[in-house]
Amino acid sequence: MRDVIYTFNGKDITMNMCIQIRAVIKVIQERLQITFQDALVLFYRSETYKVLRNTDNVLWAESAEYIADRYFEERQTKS
Prior knowledge:
The chain is mainly alpha-helical and 79 residues long. The protein contains four helices and two strands; from the N terminus they run E-E-H-H-H-H. The chain has helices at residues 14-32, 36-44, 47-53, 64-78; strands at residues 7-8, 11-12. It has a two-stranded antiparallel ribbon with strand order 1-2. A hairpin with a 2-residue loop joins strand 1 (7-8) and strand 2. Helix 3 (47-53) runs antiparallel to helix 4. The protein is globular, with a radius of gyration of 13 Å.
């Protein structure tokens, strides 16, 4: 039995979130030319990831490229 980690309107969206997170990390990896693991660490430490985890804001329903763009905007404002 799998664990429900993410829900939206009472429905399990854990698989959707895992697929989305993986896709976002892949975009970050490709743009920065770094390993998947390095991109994973960068994304998991970001404010964008924290926002994504709050499923009520529906960011998870956006494209991976859109979420990655938000991540890169965040990085730019921190520089």
